[in-house]
Design a protein that fits this description.
By secondary structure, this protein is mainly alpha-helical. The chain is built from one helix and no strands. It is elongated.
């Protein structure tokens, strides 16, 4: 019944146009909300997962080394 909450997609709000006269120009800097777009968030998630995997491997190697010494 609550599955519709999972199917929410991100929507981008159009950027405001600045300037005067007959032509409008986009602002130089993107709004703060657009700094981290979807692809960058995916990259951050992948990096976090890899770091977690590397940490798990290092922990396992340390555990094995300690077992051998005991």
């Amino acid at each position: 019944m609550e599955s519709w909450l999972v199917d929410v997609k991100r929507v981008r709000i159009p950027r405001p146009k600045f300037g005067g006269g007959s032509r409008y120009a986009y602002p130089i800097e993107p709004p703060k909300d657009y700094i981290y777009d979807d692809s960058r968030q995916d990259d951050l998630k992948i990096r976090a997962a890899l770091q977690g995997t590397n940490l798990a491997k290092a922990t396992e190697e340390l555990r094995r080394a300690l077992q051998e010494k005991l």
